[in-house]
TrEMBL record:
Cellular-component GO terms for this entry: plasma membrane
UniProt keyword Membrane present: yes
Protein name from the UniProt record: Threonine/Serine exporter ThrE domain-containing protein
Domain annotation Threonine/Serine exporter ThrE: ranges: 9-132
TM stretches of this protein: 6-24, 31-48, 54-73, 80-98, 118-140
GO biological process, one term: succinate transport
Keyword tags: Cell inner membrane, Cell membrane, Membrane, Transmembrane, Transmembrane helix
Organism: Streptococcus intermedius B196
Family statement drawn from the similarity comment of this UniProt entry: Belongs to the ThrE exporter (TC 2.A.79) family.
Subcellular location: Cell membrane
Topology with respect to the bilayer: Multi-pass membrane protein
Keyword Magnesium: no
InterPro entries for the chain: ThrE_2 (IPR024528), ThrE_Dicarb/AminoAcid_Exp (IPR050539)
Domain of life: Bacteria
Amino acid sequence: MIPLTVLLQAAASFLAIVTFLIVLNVQKSMLIPGGVLGMFTWLLYYMLKEPTNVIIATFIAAIIGSCISQILSILYKTPAVVFILAILAPLVPGYLSYRTTAFFVTGNYSHAMVNTTLVVILALVISIGMASGTVVLKLYHYLQQHRSS
């Protein structure tokens, strides 16, 4: 990957996520941390997409983003939803959903069904990954408590 491309991806994702958070009326003090977390999640997905595939990259980015969002919610003493929105924004397959609808409208049902399957798989992977991130942190906390006892 070209470093300039990665830098442009980072800048564009940061601006897009901060704008998304503004539209959702997130408090101003959480815009920069949320934007950085979303940018990190997008870059993680972007870097993992080539050596693996879209599904695995989305799953790993969702798990790691969920863990970091839980940690940031504790550090900033704010609800985790603020940071979860920031990691959802880059992972949700919006363009793919749009293309699926376009295939249905134009009558290209074979492409529409393939894209529909991928959209559903990605939606499941995102939700399972975000739940898994929370479970991983709770398991880590549980093991830390029982190790010291």
